[in-house]
Specification:
The chain has 323 residues and is α/β, with parallel strands linked by helices. Helix 2 crosses helix 11 (293-308). It has helices at residues 2-14, 26-36, 84-87, 104-122, 125-133, 157-168, 191-201, 221-226, 244-253, 274-277, 293-308, and strands spanning 16-20, 42-44, 54-59, 75-78, 98-99, 149-153, 172-177, 186-190, 204-207, 231-235, 256-261, 281-283. The radius of gyration is 22 Å and the shape is elongated. The strands form two sheets. The protein has a seven-stranded parallel sheet with strand order 8-7-6-9-10-11-12. Strands 2-1-3-4-5 form a five-stranded parallel sheet. The protein folds into two domains: 3-103 and 291-322, NAD(P)-binding Rossmann-like Domain (Rossmann fold), CATH 3.40.50; 104-283, NAD(P)-binding Rossmann-like Domain (Rossmann fold, 3-Layer(aba) Sandwich), CATH 3.40.50. Helix 6 (157-168) links the parallel strand 6 and strand 7 (172-177). 36% of the residues lie in helices and 17% in strands. The chain binds glyoxylic acid. Glyoxylic acid is lined by residues 80-82, 291.
Length: 323
């Protein structure tokens, strides 16, 4: 009896974890959490049990009422690498640290998506697809990787991993970010003053920026015009980074030759949207890299244990980035 109440007391001290995620993803996440964090009671939204017991929350697109009365919430984990879905929630408690999802399987998925599309555009596979449908046997000129500059907008964990793989494949790689980066083989451009120079060299532009008011529509009529004629765009960041009508115009004029888009201003992409049927656009349904519950939960569990042991959390978002 004594030891049982001891366990209960310990559990209360450790608190409970609240999960909010799309309903179809709940079973896999709940199973992974129960397997890895067996000692921590799991609450699945909308069942919050006793809100005072909730210490940790693992969230994707939380509704504003989720945070009501969570007085003891200590850490908020994002299910995804991006945290815009949390920052846009008007009730997000300002004092609670937010942790990005950073784990090797999520990163690897993003590297695969970007490399696949870079090779597809570099080796003109999208054009061979069209030729095949017309039974057209025509060899297109081939350039080497070293003759192509791939510009990566956003050199966070994902951008850096993509850059590292591209340099191994001998592409010329440049990156644009808020602060100067020193990555082997990657030319670093910083901030507004260096944006146009960065764009003017990027034959394939990879968008991996976080979404906030400073990056919204960063790719627009003016910045698209800075890209070399015939450039390709890959967007695996957020739809709002690109002014969609400006991109359509640039595609129609041929200034942008092709785009691989995984994210959109409105998701799911509306049926009538011109991207669906544009001959030079490839659409995927926000699937570039899906968070894997089994490996992601390892990262969450490690961070919870760090927090419980008074150690620094990994990959928190600094308050200045939470404007
Ligand atoms: C998905 O979009 C993510 O943020 O990981």
């Amino acid at each position: 009896m004594n030891s049982q109440s001891g366990i209960v007391e310990h559990m209360n001290e450790a608190g409970e974890l609240l999960l909010h995620i799309d309903p179809e993803r709940v079973p896999a996440w709940a199973a992974a959490l129960r397997a890895t964090l067996a000692e921590m009671p799991l609450r699945i939204w909308p069942d919050r049990g006793d809100p005072d017991q909730i210490r940790y929350a693992l969230l994707w697109k939380p509704p504003p009422e989720l945070f009501d009365g969570l007085h003891n919430l200590q850490v908020i984990f994002s299910v995804g690498a991006g945290i815009d879905h949390l920052l846009s929630c008007t009730t997000l408690p300002a004092h609670v640290p937010v942790v990005r999802m950073v784990e090797p399987v999520l990163t690897a998925g993003m590297v695969e998506y970007v490399i696949y599309n870079v090779i597809r555009f570099h080796r003109r596979m999208h054009e061979y697809d069209v030729q095949q449908r017309q039974a057209q046997w025509q060899v297109l000129p081939q350039v080497t990787a070293g003759d192509l500059t791939i510009g990566i907008m956003g050199l966070g964990v994902l951008g850096e991993a993509v850059a590292s793989m591209l340099t191994k494949m001998n592409y010329r790689v440049t990156g644009w970010s808020r602060s100067r980066k020193s990555l082997p083989g990657v030319r670093s451009y910083v901030g507004e003053p260096e944006l146009l120079k960065f764009l003017s060299d990027a034959q394939i532009l990879v968008m991996l920026l976080p979404m906030d008011e400073t990056t919204q529509h960063i790719l627009n009529k003016g910045t698209l015009a800075q890209l070399p004629s015939g450039a390709c765009v890959i967007n695996a960041g957020r739809g709002g980074l690109i002014h969609e009508n400006d991109l359509l115009n640039a595609l129609d004029k041929g200034h942008i030759s092709c785009a691989a888009l995984d994210v959109f201003e409105t998701e799911p992409l509306p049926e009538a949207h011109l991207f669906w049927r544009h001959p030079n656009v490839t659409v995927t349904p926000h699937a570039a890299s899906l968070t894997n519950p089994v490996t992601a939960v390892q990262f969450v569990a490690e961070n919870i244990r760090r927090h419980q042991n008074g150690k620094r959390l990994k990959h928190t978002v600094v308050p200045t980035d939470r404007r």
